[in-house]
Amino acid sequence: MARTIPHRELRNNSSAVLREVQAGESIEISNHGEVVAVLVPPGARRESLRVRRARVVGGLAGLDRVHVETPVQDILDDLRGER
Questions:
Q1: Beta-carbon count within 10 A of 29 CB
Q2: What pLDDT was estimated at residue 83?
């Protein structure tokens, strides 16, 4: 049975996680409690894995660009209350 870790642990400890996978362990990656990916060693049996095609969501390329005079970092700082 594969061990499940949150995506944050993969992001923060990717080298260690990849070493474990290289050593033969399968690891499920979760996002908000839902398993979204499985890391398996190369050559592992993949027949049991469910594969879904990626889907395009949003279509953001069609949006018009917005130009602002204020630097975005200043806007973010203001929204965070850092001013």
A1: 19
A2: 56
Cα gap 40→28, rounded to integer Å: 9
DSSP 8-state secondary structure symbol assigned to residue 79? H
Is the pTM here over 0.70, yes or no? no
| Domains with residue ranges and CATH for the chain | 1-46 (3.40.1620.10)
Residue 79 clears pLDDT 80, i.e. is over it: yes
d(CA 28, CA 64): 38
> Residue range 35-56: average pLDDT?
77
Question: Are the C-beta atoms of residues 35 and 58 closer than 8 Å to each other?
Answer: no
The DSSP symbol for 61 reads: G
What pLDDT is attached to residue 48?
Answer: 63
Q: CA-CA-CA-CA torsion for 28, 14, 9, 34, nearest 10 degrees?
A: -30
The CA distance from 19 to 79, in Å, is: 40
